[in-house]
């Protein structure tokens, strides 16, 4: 579980709820079904028009990545590459085959397998970079979806408010209830802005961060495997790869 995502969401929603309560507000007044249906349902509908059902169906997967995803361990990747480099230097690239079962990351496993198969260096890099591009394309589909949700949500909130005002102003017989009805009409705007800025846009940014972390790890793999293929010195490979990561992570260098 990603504590930053969970903690940030709790802090953001909690701060608003506490402040609203301190001002004497009643939480039941803002948790009304009609504005929530307009904002959440309308936003999902607009997003579906702009993308595909397949992308919408993947929302639970995107949420799982945002709330439970783990950052790749770059140092562990470098350690694995260093071990493979030592093995290849002693036994040749064919000696790496016994280590394939220990490489759980599919991209890393495929890269090493290509080296074992004797793939030419230029072709190897082209294959791996093409796969990275397709991975990025899939990631940006999810990122774009949540950015779209964040853009549509405030607008749907305004639409909900306008509908509420139309209903309120068309029933002006009871003036004593007018002020309360007008206040209730603005609940949709609250939900639209709140969902955009506390949910959709932050999750989109978290997915972007996850993508950047994974992309950095894939770059490490491409550089490391390419260096192994060309027979570079394992110490030189490790030193070169260490330059890819933050100095605070360079423990055990």
Describe this structure in words.
The protein is mainly α and 253 residues long. The protein has a domain at 33-72 and 128-238. It is built from ten helices and no strands. The chain has helices spanning 3-22, 33-50, 53-57, 59-68, 74-91, 106-116, 121-169, 178-185, 187-229, 234-242.
Secondary-structure map:
Layout: H1 3-22, H2 33-50, H3 53-57, H4 59-68, H5 74-91, H6 106-116, H7 121-169, H8 178-185, H9 187-229, H10 234-242
Helix pairs in contact: 1-9, 2-7, 2-9, 4-9, 5-9, 5-10, 6-7, 6-9, 7-8, 7-9, 9-10
Features:
elongated, 253 residues, single chain, mainly alpha, 10 helices
Task: Provide a short characterization of the protein structure.
By secondary structure, the protein is mainly α. The protein is 75% helix and 0% strand.
**Radius of gyration in whole Å, from Cα?**
26 Å
Number of strands: 0
Sheet with the most strands? none
The low-pLDDT segments are none
Q: With helices defined by DSSP (H or I, 4 residues minimum), what is the helix count? A: 10
* β-sheet strand percentage: under 5%
Distance linking N and C termini: 29 Å
What shape does the CA trace take? elongated
Q: How helix-rich are the residues, as a percent range? A: over 70%
Which structural class fits the helix and strand makeup? Answer: mainly alpha
Task: Compute the average pLDDT.
Answer: 89
Please trace the helix and strand order, writing H or E for each element: HHHHHHHHHH
